Every structure is written in C-alpha cells, then in structure tokens.
Amino acid sequence: MSGNVVDTNSAWIADKCWMFGHKVVWHGGVGDYLEEIGDACRLAASRADVVFVTGGLGATLDDITLEAAAKAFKKQMVFHEDIWRDIQTFFRKFGRECSGNNKRQAYIPEGGKPLTNRVGTAPGVQVKLGHAIFFFLPGVPRELYQIFRDSIMPWLKGRAEAAYEQKFLRCFGLPEASYDEKLKGLDLGPVRMSFRVTFPEVKIKLVARGKTALQDIKRAEEKIRKKIGRYIFGADDETLEMAVAELLKSSGLKLALAESCTGGHISNLLTNVPGASEWFRGGVVSYSNDLKTGIVGVRPATLKKHGAVSKACAEEMAKGIRKVALADIGLAVTGIAGPTGGTKEKPVGTVHIALATKGKTGHITFSQERGRIAFKQFVAYEALSLLRRHLT
Amino acid sequence: MSGNVVDTNSAWIADKCWMFGHKVVWHGGVGDYLEEIGDACRLAASRADVVFVTGGLGATLDDITLEAAAKAFKKQMVFHEDIWRDIQTFFRKFGRECSGNNKRQAYIPEGGKPLTNRVGTAPGVQVKLGHAIFFFLPGVPRELYQIFRDSIMPWLKGRAEAAYEQKFLRCFGLPEASYDEKLKGLDLGPVRMSFRVTFPEVKIKLVARGKTALQDIKRAEEKIRKKIGRYIFGADDETLEMAVAELLKSSGLKLALAESCTGGHISNLLTNVPGASEWFRGGVVSYSNDLKTGIVGVRPATLKKHGAVSKACAEEMAKGIRKVALADIGLAVTGIAGPTGGTKEKPVGTVHIALATKGKTGHITFSQERGRIAFKQFVAYEALSLLRRHLT
Q1: What is the DSSP letter of B6?
Q2: Which long-range CB contacts under 8 A does B33-37 form with residues at least 24 apart?
Q3: What's the CA gap between B256 and B259, in Å, rounded?
Q4: Could you give the 3-state DSSP secondary structure of residue A390?
Q5: Which residues of A touch B265 (CB under 8 A)?
Q6: What residues in B contact A281, CB-CB < 8 Å?
C-alpha cells in the first residue's frame, strides 16, 4: 500500500495456477488492518474456490492476517503444540533466541492444517473458510516458494482437469516484430504462441493443455525452429551465457576477452556460470588506449590510422588477447557507449566486434544508439551471439 | 492474471500518492472482461475518493476498460474529434499507418477529460463516476509515468493537505539488524524511519510531512550520519559506483582493477557511470593463474607458496595492475565464488581484497558463503567500499 515494495508474489502464484489449468479471476491488496483483511478474504471467497493470501504471518504485532481471517469467518484461533516445537527447533538450529512473540505464530484458525516452512519460522496454513479453500503463506518470496512447491503444487496438480504446459524459447538477433512476421501463418495446432520482450531478448511463449500438451509443444517448437532456429539460443531458464558456456565446454576450447565499451559486462555474464574457469581464461578491460597497446598488443600505428573504434583495432584486440591469454578464441569489442565521445563519422552507438581463432579472424560492425547501460547489454549479447554462431 | 507480467504500476502510483499525503487503502486486479472490470470499478469507488485504473486503453479489441467503466456507471461513450486528431498526428510523426481500430481510442465516457499522452496513442482520462474521481491510464509504464507526471501530480499536489517528503540513505557495510540497533533510541522528531534491504545494500527511508518536512528530514539525517555516517555512501538515486566515481573524479586519481572471483563485475559497475574513461584506466579479469603472472605480474613463487586466494597474491595483483595500467590506484580481488573450488583451509566464500597506491598497500579478507552471483555482488560492494574509504 505504501509503494515501497512491488508485489511479485501474485504473478508467481498466478503462473503456477495456470500451469495446472486453474484460472485466476481476481487479486486484491489491503493494509494491515483487521477489518480490511477480513473484508478482502470474504470478497475473495465469494469469487473463487481457492484463495491464496500472502503476508502478515510474522512474529510482530502488525502480523494479523490469520486472526483477521478467522474473525471474518467466525472461527477460533487454536494453539498448536507441534508448530510451537518446530519454531523453537528452527531458532535453536541457527543459535538464535526465540522471542515470546514467536509463540503467536503457533496459533492458527480452527480446522486449519499447518504447511511446513523449512526456511523460516511461520508455517503456511491450509483451511476451509466459507465455501473456499484458503492457503495462507508468508510474504517473503523465498519462504512462499518453498511452501508452495512442497505442499501446494501437488495439491493443485491433483485437482487439475487439464494441466497446462509451457515452454519459453529465448531468442536474440531480430526485433520483436520480425519474429511475429516470420512466424505468421504457421500452423501450431492447439499450441498458443505469444511474445515477450525482456531486453535484450525476445521470449516466445508456447502454451498447450491436456494430455498431449508436451507433444503438441514439441511439434510446434520444431516448426518454429525450422523458420527462426538460428535466433533461438536456449529454452526456459537457459541464458545466452549458459548456452555459450555449454558449447565452449563440449568443444574443449578456451576463451579470452578484450572488452572496451562493454567495460567487463561480457566477462561478468560469462563468470556467472558455475565452472567458468574450465573454459574462460580471463580478459582485459582495455578502457584506455594504453591498455590496448601495452597489454593487448594493438599497434600504436593502428590506433593512429583507424582510431580505437575500428575494424582494424577490434581485430588486433581479438588476435592480441587470444595470444597473451593463451586462449583458443579471442573475442574483442570496441565502441562508443556514450553519452559523449561520438563524432560525425563515428556517432555514439558505433561498435566493432571481432573474433579470432588460430589463423582466422571474423568481424561485425553496427550502430545502435541506446542508453549507456542498455547499449552495453545489447553489445554483450551481439558479441556472445557471434561466438555462439562460431561454435555451432 | 496469467502471471506473465509483474504489476509494478500499483506500487509506483501508491508511492506518488503517499508523497502528497494521500492514503492508499485498496488495490485489485481483474482480467479483460466487461463485467469484472465494471465490478472492480464500482468496488473501488465505494472505498475511495480517487481511483486509478491502468491498462486496457489500447487499440485492440480486448482493450475494453473505458467501455466497461462507462457501462458500470451507466454513462455513454462519447467521440472526441480532438483526440482522434492527436492520434493521427502521432502516427504521422512516426511515419506509421493509423489503423481503423485506433479510432476506438477517441471514445471516452461522457463528462470525461482526456489527459495528453506524449509517448503513445491512448490518452489518459479523468472522469467522475459515482462518488469518485477516476483516472484511467495506459498500462505501459513509460506512458503511465508521463501522463501521471504531467497531468496528475499537479492535481494530487493541489489537494494535498500535508505533503510527504522522503529521502533514502543508502548504506553498505553492516547487516540490517545492526543499523536498527545503532540507531535505536535516536530522537528523530516527527520523522519516520524504516529499513529496506535491496541486496547488497540497506536503505534507510526517512519520511516527514507538512511544511517543515524537508528541514525535519535534514535534521534527522544529520543525527543518523553522526552515528553511522561511514556506512552511508549515497542518497536516493546515487549508487555506490557513482559515489566512487565522484571521489575519483575530484581527486584526479586514475584507477585500475585486477579481478579474479568477481569476474569483471566491479569493472562493469564502474563503467556504467558516464564519463568513466576520465578516471578508469581499465583492468584485467585474471581468471586463470597464467593471466595473474603473465599480465598482472604476480610472482609464480607467490602462487606456489600462498595460492591464488591469499593476501600475498591480492597485494601483488593490486601493485601489479597499478603499474601495468599506469594508474594511481590498483584494486584487486581474489576469492572462491563456488559452488566448487573450496578446501578446508579456504572454503567457498573466502576472499582477499587489496588496494595499492604509490608505496602503500592495504588489505582486507573475509569469508561469506552465498550463491555465486550474490557472492560476486557482495564482494564488488566490499571492494568499492574499501576504495571509497581510501578516497575519503
């Protein structure tokens, strides 16, 4: 209500509900007041068969969700000895003191069933109130996710009439509208396709329901890959850097980077992947020209003749870093991130990317004026895509 | 409702309302159905004097928000010639075709007043329905923000009985509970203080209302700074890297980095700041030992005797990168990000950070087991904080 926190729980829960074919019809938010919470619970129960309530299960005095719900449906709050034992055990495990307030967390509405919380003190609660089944969950996402996965997913699944399956195909290399255009008219059978931009990527979402959902999605995916397969780098949780990491790992080749305008962003992405040291030698952030010549081995004459943002410089950076870092592949980026530094010939957004292997060098160039940080992200994706194409 | 998109608009609007002393009491979400939208509008109007409705103002057939609201309150939809002209002008400006569907966007409920949208086609609408003033706004955040700032902020401000002011003090260096403890009992007058963790930072939020709000916050800030000033690196939108950049810029000193376990993350943060090339020479991501010895100048004997994750190695990295990059300050990080690579003596999470200036070297070490990416973020903040302390 104060605008300090964005509610991500509603969307997370809705997504899980749809996966099992349950339609979400309403959500609402209120402040920590007995009457308003009670009202919201009654309203929800009048609109749906299942209600999820998050937040307000903590140990402090403004955590009154269960009490409010019980009151709204004229139920008693009942003390559960086993919940109280679990809370005390939880505190002992972390060597912390259990305060008297925590005892409040052992009271739940009559008829309710506690749902074990393995990562926090407050258990979730499942209880029938009015005509609806209520699930009360902690507001802390980490705790909510655990209880939901452990106790609620199986429950939802057991009641799914026709579960939904979904798959995201993650793409880079074309503007959003172009995917739409290239896939227009494709017969995907019962599979629904939609697009989502999460810059710099475009995600294609495939959804199907029923017993043949997985096969239907697989067939749709094959058709899509025939049209735009080269732009699809991964599925679901697979990032571009993970896809590149996998390719490097299986090829046995070692990579080194020379980054100028991306300022370490590519290196940062790649080292987010566990085990990166197996295939990543390291790199140089050659932000000043002295580092380009002094460490990476770009010839001063090249800088003088073509400038730092040039094909020649990018190629010498790629070749140089490959050699100096004892790598199989050298990848180099040089450009103008802005907001200053642009000229008429080389405006802000100009980039040269080069990739060097033993005896061979590839190069791409383009210009993309964007905000500084978005520019770095976009160029990093272009560079990793060049590497991915090379490895495939 | 589908869980595909997290609603950030509600929190954004709520934050603005509080700023002007208006209390937010309820929010709700429904799908794109005439009856459900109408219901939600009536419910909102029965609970508040002002209602914000976002989304569903677009040109496609499922954009029915205005129609639903008008129907719920038995109002006619009225065609506005001037809106239609604006829409056509907007399309011409971008050289695009205006489709017939766009004409639907020129209809608004009777008595309504359009609110100019400078970044999209659909105008906002202000209209009294029932006892409440309704503001209808596009769901696209960029468009919503513009209309809100242009047309609604002044309106809210004009009706504010006692406007709120707020300030965030951004801190790093202590766990959340310690700030609370150190500031306990501090008399901040009418200023409300609260804490927010946005890992790896802790933000202290100060809120005051009325005519003396700004002075009240200033006095509270002074008291807080007396207690924990060394942990406060910035206010409101100022990031840690921006604070460090400012210090480097005014000192005239040049920085170089040697990053091992952070894998380029520190470099990436610093180069997000416009004009970084003025004070950032660049750096080396010395992910393999060959780069530590070959480029940065760590002695092989040091690696052999102490290992790569050691005080000796960090110090040689800091001294080495300072020299090789022709910088005034060398900052170096070496550690074990995990999940593998830990030993009994040096478990996952062990870090050494060193800072070298002309003739002097400082060093800190600690162990923090976290997920790989969180670890990189935390270590980057520790390194930048060390640098910040040095520069102040």
Answers
A1: -
A2: B33/B68, B34/B64, B34/B67, B34/B68, B34/B71, B35/B68, B36/A25, B36/A26, B36/B68, B37/B64, B37/B65, B37/B68, B37/B69, B37/B72
A3: 10
A4: helix
A5: 264, 268, 271
A6: 287-288, 290-291
Cα–Cα distances (Å) from A199 to A173, A203, A343, B55, in that order, read 11, 10, 27, 21
Q: Could you tell me the pTM of the whole model?
A: 0.83
d(CA A368, nearest CA chain B) in Å: 17
* Burial of residue B111, with CB atoms counted within 10 A of its CB: 0-12 exposed, 13-18 middle, 19 or more buried: middle
Contact in structure between A352 and A310 (CB atoms under 8 Å): yes
CB contact under 8 A, B29 and A10: yes
Q: Which residues of B fall within a CB distance of 8 Å from A148?
A: none
Kindly list the structural domains of chain A, giving each domain's residue range(s) and its CATH number in brackets, ordered by start.
Answer: 9-158 (3.40.980.10), 164-235 (3.30.70.2860), 240-391 (3.90.950.20)
Contacts of B336 (CB under 8 A, 6+ apart): B261, B309, B342, B346, B347, B348, B349, B350, B351
- Per-residue tens of pLDDT for chain A, all 392 residues: 988 889 999 999 999 998 888 889 999 999 989 999 999 999 999 999 999 999 999 877 778 999 999 999 999 999 999 999 998 888 887 777 777 778 889 999 999 999 999 888 889 999 999 999 999 999 989 899 999 999 999 999 888 877 788 899 999 998 777 888 899 889 999 998 988 778 899 999 999 988 899 999 999 999 999 999 999 999 999 999 999 999 999 999 999 999 999 999 999 999 999 999 999 999 999 999 999 999 999 999 999 999 999 999 999 999 999 999 999 999 999 999 988 888 999 999 999 999 999 999 999 999 987 889 999 999 999 999 999 999 99
Concatenate the DSSP letters of all residues of B177-204 into one string.
Answer: HHHHHHHTT---TT-EEEEEEETTEEEE
* Complex prediction ipTM: 0.83
Q: How far is A195 from chain B (nearest CA, A)?
A: 11
